[in-house]
Amino acid sequence: MGGGKAIPCVVAHGGAGSAAADADAPREACRLALAALAAGGTALEAVLRAAAHLEDDPRFNAGTGSAPSIAAGRLSYL
């Protein structure tokens, strides 16, 4: 490999059952992650920004849209 500049690549998805109409959220998550990298952020900061965006979207089963359950005294996510 040469000493050229790395080109960042970000991939996000909304899950196996996501509707095509919901593709805007993963696209925006990628845009936010790339913006974090372009501003000098770390890869971890970029991932956190993308994940937070998807978790804040109630269309996805994560964060706001998740289905937590307490069964047998343990917290689990359905």
Low-confidence stretches: none
Q: Output the number of helix runs.
A: 2
**Helix and strand run:** HHEE
Q: Helix/strand-derived class? A: alpha+beta
Mean pLDDT: 86
Query: Biggest β-sheet, characterized?
Result: 2 strands, antiparallel
Counted beta strands: 2
Give a written overview of the molecule.
The protein is an alpha+beta fold and 78 residues long. It is built from two helices and two strands. Strands 1-2 form a two-stranded antiparallel ribbon. Helix 1 (24-38) packs antiparallel against helix 2 (43-55). The longest helix is centred in the middle third of the chain and has 15 residues, at 24-38. The protein is elongated. The termini are far apart. The mean pLDDT is 86.
Write the layout of secondary structure elements.
Blueprint: H1 24-38, H2 43-55, E1 68-71, E2 74-77
Antiparallel strand pairs: 1-2
